[in-house]
């Protein structure tokens, strides 16, 4: 028979061992639980966003998964009408070069792709400059201000037009009047206004009414440019397509809602009869590994494409 005092010592020792083992297993279990992703990018500092970029690369997320995650974490970020752009010292737009606290319709797209294609923070900044400015040189005069004739053409190193591939002979042309001279005058850039002319850009688009039949050909990460039936681009909307459990969605910075939102793509087009056609461009294969420009052509139709052939093979 064990003496009471000795039993008390054994009991104390046993309890201590149990506590230590439980603590050890608890610590190990805690180590194996992955840290959750942030709820929104606008709640993070620049250094935290840099850490987020490194993390999604260390975890070897596929590019489409990065795009879905990043654009989801942008939902709810405030949207403004002013162009985000040049740092202080630019002659017109004086907003920071990057800003996840608020976005405009184009900067949401630029920042989303620049982040997903980056390996680290400096890489993100380089991607952003290259998408937004001709030859990556920051400045109001070098900015790709107009989506169809400037931004899409300048970013042929990154995207290719898949509208005709998706819709075949069903594509149709939409023209955009580019009031470049008035744009520069309103920005106070009188010298630039004197150097440019107003032009017209024409692109081949997918009729909105047949998009529902083409959903299988779309991919997460495709860029959708929804063009209105007006001659100007003031009502056009650009967004990123993602596939979720609810189907094909378009995520975009809405000036009406004043925030980044998502809508089912087909329903979005049906609810907005002002849209006539959709231009769809897609990231090149292994876009995250691209280090130099590659040829890019918008579907301008056989005649217009031939007229623009020489210009499309050069850096903007």
Number of helices: 12
Q: What's the Cα radius of gyration?
A: 25 Å
- SSE string, helices as H and strands as E: HHHHHHEHEHHEEEEEHEHH
Q: Any low-confidence stretches, pLDDT <50, length ≥5?
A: 21-34, 291-296, 302-316
Number of DSSP strand runs: 8
Percent in helix: 25-40%
Shape: globular
Mean pLDDT: 82
Structural class: alpha+beta
Q: Gap between N and C termini, in Å?
A: 94 Å
The percentage of residues in β strands lies in: 15-25%
Main pleated-sheet profile:
8 strands, antiparallel
What labels describe this entry?
18% strand; 8 strands; alpha+beta; 316 residues
Written overview of the protein:
The protein is α+β, with helices and mostly antiparallel strands and 316 residues long. The chain contains twelve helices and eight strands. It has helices at 4-32, 46-58, 63-74, 105-116, 121-132, 147-154, 163-167, 180-186, 190-195, 265-270, 302-307, 309-312, and strands spanning 159-161, 172-178, 199-207, 223-228, 237-244, 247-254, 259-264, 275-283. Strands 1, 2, 3, 4, 5, 6, 7 and 8 form an eight-stranded antiparallel β-sheet that branches. Helix 4 crosses helix 5. The radius of gyration is 25 Å and the shape is globular. The model is unreliable at 21-34, 291-296 and 302-316 (pLDDT under 50).
Topology overview:
Elements: H1 4-32, H2 46-58, H3 63-74, H4 105-116, H5 121-132, H6 147-154, E1 159-161, H7 163-167, E2 172-178, H8 180-186, H9 190-195, E3 199-207, E4 223-228, E5 237-244, E6 247-254, E7 259-264, H10 265-270, E8 275-283, H11 302-307, H12 309-312
Antiparallel strand pairs: 1-8, 2-3, 3-8, 4-5, 4-8, 5-6, 6-7
Helix pairs in contact: 3-4, 4-5
């Amino acid at each position: 028979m064990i003496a009471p005092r000795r039993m008390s010592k054994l009991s104390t020792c046993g309890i201590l061992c149990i506590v230590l083992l439980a603590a050890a297993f608890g610590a190990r279990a805690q180590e194996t639980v992955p840290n959750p992703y942030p709820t929104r990018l606008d709640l993070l500092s620049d250094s935290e966003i840099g850490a987020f970029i490194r993390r999604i690369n260390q975890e070897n997320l596929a590019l489409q998964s990065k795009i879905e995650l990043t654009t989801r974490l942008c939902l709810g970020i405030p949207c403004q009408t002013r162009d985000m752009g040049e740092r202080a010292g630019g002659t017109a737009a004086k907003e920071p070069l990057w800003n996840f606290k608020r976005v405009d319709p184009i900067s949401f797209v630029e920042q989303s792709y620049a982040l997903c294609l980056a390996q680290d923070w400096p890489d993100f900044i380089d991607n952003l400059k290259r998408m937004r400015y001709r030859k990556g040189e920051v400045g109001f005069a070098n900015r790709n201000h107009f989506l169809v004739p400037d931004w899409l053409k300048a970013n042929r190193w990154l995207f290719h037009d898949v509208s005709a591939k998706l819709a075949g002979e069903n594509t149709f042309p939409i023209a955009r009047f580019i009031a470049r001279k008035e744009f520069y005058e309103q920005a106070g850039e009188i010298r630039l206004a004197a150097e440019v002319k107003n032009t017209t850009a024409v692109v081949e688009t997918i009729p909105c009414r047949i998009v529902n039949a083409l959903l299988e050909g779309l991919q997460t990460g495709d860029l959708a440019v929804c063009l209105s039936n007006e001659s100007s681009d003031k009502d056009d909307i650009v967004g990123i397509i993602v596939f979720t459990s609810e189907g094909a969605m378009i995520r975009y910075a809405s000036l009406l809602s004043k925030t980044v939102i998502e809508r089912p793509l087909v329903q979005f087009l049906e609810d907005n009869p002002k849209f006539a056609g959709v231009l769809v461009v897609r990231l090149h294969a292994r876009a995250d590994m691209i280090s130099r420009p590659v040829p890019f052509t918008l579907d301008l139709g056989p005649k217009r494409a031939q007229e623009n052939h020489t210009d499309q093979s050069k850096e903007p």
